[in-house]
Amino acid sequence: MEKPSDASKARTGQLRRVVLSDQEIEAARTTLRVLAGPPEESRPEPADDWETKIEKARRMLAFRQRRMEILDLRAEAPFAILLALYANEPWEPAITLTRLTLLSSVGMSSTLRWLEGLLAEKLVERGDDPDDLRKTILRLTSKGRGKMDELFDESVQSPPLTS
Fold first, then answer.
1. Strands 132-140 and 95-96, sheet pairing
2. Are 60 and 115 in contact (CB under 8 A)?
3. Beta-bridge partner residues of 126
4. Is 33 among the domain residues?
5. Strand order across the beta sheet in which 124-129 lies
6. Which element (helix H / strand E) includes 155?
7. For residue 146, what is the domain's CATH number?
8. Which of the listed residues 10, 15, 28, 77 has the most CB atoms within 10 Å of its CB?
9. pTM (2 d.p.)
10. Is position 126 within any domain?
């Protein structure tokens, strides 16, 4: 086992209050302005572009947390499968296994493996293609559609992100 470093020892110690004078605070502000670079108007990107990207990332993270709560899916592959079925349902209410693998960008073996769990949870149902009995078709169940509707319901607030 490694010996703790001085830095890790310092982090585990008690916190101390530091009092700074107004002059020290102004010197720190000046240093931060210098480190921050040129004024915002001379930057190549708008100043809020970074903030916008961070906000998008935070929304994606909140959505991911919400997805895990509603669908109880921790892995990406089963969500990609459900998402492909849900997003294409207006045009293709039932799709073949091959088409599902293409739409979800999940390999055939992974799709087959995850599909068993989605079938067991009654989120997806499997049937025969009436036009070609050699093919299997898949569709969302009403439970699966309901869960996806709930996930994408924007009127429901996502839980706050924890820091």
1. antiparallel
2. no
3. 138
4. no
5. 95-96, 132-140, 124-129
6. none
7. 1.10.10.10
8. 77
9. 0.63
10. yes
pLDDT tens for residues 103-158? 999 999 999 999 999 999 999 999 998 888 888 899 999 999 999 999 988 765 55
Number of domains comprising the chain = 1
Q: Categorize the per-residue pLDDT at 55 as very low, low, confident or very high, splitting at 50, 70 and 90.
A: confident
Got the DSSP string for 33-92? HHHH-S-GGGSSS-HHHHHHHHHHHHHHHHHHHHHHHHH---SHHHHHHHHHHHHHTTT-
In a domain, 55, yes or no: no
Three-class SS of residue 26?
Answer: helix
Mean pLDDT across 72-80: 89
**Structure token pair of residue 19:** 């009092």
